[in-house]
């Protein structure tokens, strides 16, 4: 059967999307009583918005969707970079994805957790000497240092603030127009030229870098054409490691916020498993990555709708993680919901769905979870602090969202 799906009328609904933010898709799906509707976005292009488990299943079917030409230019100019893995398909995508997955071994994940915890413990000693700190900016710096160390990239103490600001600007610009967007573009230019020269140094043998690191692997990776990557593409992919590691600062701020908002849950954190459930619920509950975007590969019919080759399709990430058919009382923060929960690659998708090696699901998901668990452990067991009055609310419109005060802590003390 064929039928007309609901239409969000208008020549270009980008403004409505900007003003409703994370809730744009789910607000309309609720209003229309359907998990799919048609709209016009990004300069009036026809776009299908979808939410829920079934939608995620079809969205990650590679025979139906592709990424080439899907990400808008302004996103490539800031968040992703040109010719990044996010924009690739088929065999060349799979080959590039193997590079990313090969960096995520158990051993390498333990390495970054160790580096990060060590940096955090050193930082506590500095925080003890300050009246107050802003957790988000402190953690952004810790993650910049950790990401560079782990990746084999030299970073002098002097440059930490600058690089941390630039890396933050990349993801902060992703949903922005105006000055925030321009700041992101400038940061991308600066970071790419820095990393291009680092890559050239490695290739010219100007310094030794351990084989297991992202820098070494990316510098020497052979693409499907048998050649090493163009230096700019190599820099883009190195930034595809550094930028999202630094972006974990957003999730860590939400971890800290959840500890404040749900003291009862905090009080019940005992076992390693409790920590894991808490982190999973933070990733489900709080807004971060709003939706994934693809284009229809070839015409096909699904649930009565004619998907036409080239149509833009948005999969609602935030809405799927709050979908009432998947989650009981989705607007409650309840880590317990993850205890004994059956794993399903399509119903819990804060970092994308489907398969890591075959599709576009985030290769950094395990790393993100481990770093968040380490942060939760540090915040709850290794330090004491006071929380002065501040604006802890977070926007459902600004992307990425973040507690407004960025979590100010006072009188930080290392717990003995
Ligand atoms: C892809 C979210 C951390 C590297 C993605 C996608 C999402 C996502 C939603 C796209 C899925 C899709 O297009 O279908 C996040 C969030 C993170 C995070 C919320 C928390 C900070 C990381 C980390 C790394 C990473 C730590 C690497 C160290 C990547 C890469 C891709 C990706 C390379 C592209 C994969 C592909 O196109 O095949 N991420 N991510 N991310 N992520 Fe993450």
Protein architecture, described:
The protein is an alpha+beta fold and 416 residues long. The chain has one domain (14-414): Cytochrome p450 (Orthogonal Bundle), CATH 1.10.630.10. The chain contains 15 helices and ten strands. The chain has helices at residues 14-20, 24-32, 53-59, 73-80, 90-102, 106-127, 135-151, 160-172, 179-203, 214-220, 231-261, 263-267, 272-285, 317-320, 365-382; strands spanning 36-41, 45-50, 65-66, 132-134, 291-296, 300-302, 305-307, 312-316, 383-386, 408-414. Strands 1-2-8-5-3 form a five-stranded mixed sheet, with helices on both faces. A three-stranded antiparallel sheet has the order 4-10-9. A two-stranded antiparallel ribbon has the order 6-7. A hairpin with a 3-residue loop joins strand 1 (36-41) and strand 2. Helix 8 (160-172) crosses helix 9 (179-203). The longest helix is centred in the middle third of the chain and has 31 residues, at 231-261. The mean pLDDT is 96. Protoporphyrin IX containing FE is lined by residues 85-86, 97, 100, 240-241, 244-245, 247-248, 251, 288-289, 292, 317, 350-352, 360-364, 367-368. The site of protoporphyrin IX containing FE has 25 residues, from helix 5, helix 11 and helix 15.
